[in-house]
Model the fold of this input.
Amino acid sequence: MANSEESYETTDIKQFASTSFTISKRLLGIFLLIIGTGSFFGILAIDIFDVGRQGGIGPSQQAALALTLIVALIGLTLIPLGDKPA
Done:
């Protein structure tokens, strides 16, 4: 009986490769939040570390920053929905 219970643990990496795995809204939200915030700070880091260039944040960077914020906000709204399939 203990072996059948172990196959349902969420920490088992084999679960992600199985054909019955479905991504939950919480997991999708966490993924979108990480991607959105990481991209946001990555775009800002490009502007900060590119010291020799003048002009600051241009229109394409502003659009990209807005899109990354939208992705992060969508992720934040999905996290409280729990373990329902996405």
Summary: Residues 36 and 71 are 5 Å apart (CA to CA). DSSP finds four helices and no strands in the chain. The mean pLDDT is 81. The helical segments are 2-6, 14-17, 25-49, 59-78.
